[in-house]
Amino acid sequence: MELTVRSTPVFCGVDWAEDHHDIALVDAGGTQLAKARITDDVAGFAQLSDLLLEHGDSAQAPIPVAIETSRGLLVSCLRASGRPVYAINPLSVARYRERYSVARKKSDSVDAAALANILRTDMAAHRPLPADSELVRAIAVLARAQQDAVWDRGQAHNKLRSQLREFYPAILTAFADHKQGLCSREARSILAAAPTPTAAAGLTRRKLQALLAQAGRVRGIQAEADRLHEVFHRDYLHQPPRVEAALGQQTTALLRQLNTACLNADQLEAAAGQAFEEHPDAPIIRGFPGLGALTGARVLAEIGDDRTRFASAESLKAYAGSAPVTRASGKSRVVMNRRVKNQRLAAVGYVWAFVSLTKSPGARAHYDRRRQAGDRHVAAQRNLFNRLIGMLFHCLQHGQAYDEAKAFPIPPSEDRSAAAA
After folding, report:
1. Residue 1 pLDDT > 80, yes or no?
2. Are 373 and 344 in contact (CB under 8 A)?
3. Whole-model pTM above 0.90?
4. For the residues 68-90, what does the mean pLDDT come to?
5. Which of 303, 304, 308, 404 is nearest to 349 (CA)?
6. Closest CA to 260 of 181, 156, 160, 159
7. Residue 35: beta bridge partners?
8. What is the predicted pLDDT for the residue at 56?
9. How far is Cα 49 from Cα 77, in angstroms, rounded to an integer?
């Protein structure tokens, strides 16, 4: 195979599919140098590597690659080879495609060429995938899977609760004030033993005590069993017996889904927390008020450990969705919250800001000032999150630990008021 010495930049576009990928190479002038279709396996990746090498790819000057996804084996192998990989949003690719085909022609080879031309003309407007460590990428997998499991658990809980409203109000009344509701081990243990109100009314106090102990309860078992026994023996409306039995079987099926979701969330939480503690950034992140092992893992999973990924704290704030957006046209100027953002980071940011209100006097004072200035609760928490994540960026960049006195210094007016009192 004859290798060419690259005198002008070459750009690669990959239109990926489930079992094959279309490749296109273009030079700085827009001339298509090569195109090919490779399989989604080792042989296909070797073919792609040979094609790139043939057109001047090297460790010192790797050919950049544009693709419409940031996941998958192909992307992982390209990143491991040291090549810059640009994950382009499919909506952006659709807009670029219209520049090259007025007839709106759509094919895999055309999309591959469009991706390569995106890098040729607008590489500066797009960012390559960050050079995160293997550990932080593993943390991202676990933290995102745990967050998905929590969402699945909530969905399974809502399905089960909706089902129980149809025929089993006693169990809802029994655990209405419980912190975890139907997701608690006690509720799931009793519901497994008594999936219908008739079966619940037949539970004795001794049986209830055994179920509570089996669920892990240690204190107040007898008092709780007496309370549940009284709740289950109240008068309620009932479905016909055969309908109630059928609904009980459906409830058992929904309960199995909830049990699986709860187990997945718990196991993934432990795994994410363990991996997070191994990362060198963990002590700095956990030092912030409101961040623990799980929430810290979620934050680290989304921001990564590539220090060059965000040029400034403002870039990270925009990525997190905490920084507002200003829209100005003529004499019109509107400041509004940012909707295009990393939804996972924004979700954990809300929890982070909320918990910090009870962990940091400075965070609480900042929140109260925003409320007094007219912000609603969500806006005040978003502003607090905006400040916290900016401080986190500074601490990670400089390897510094969180300092409450520097993070939230006492305003001069409040300092004078305290001295006068």
Report:
1. no
2. no
3. no
4. 90
5. 303
6. 156
7. 24
8. 86
9. 10
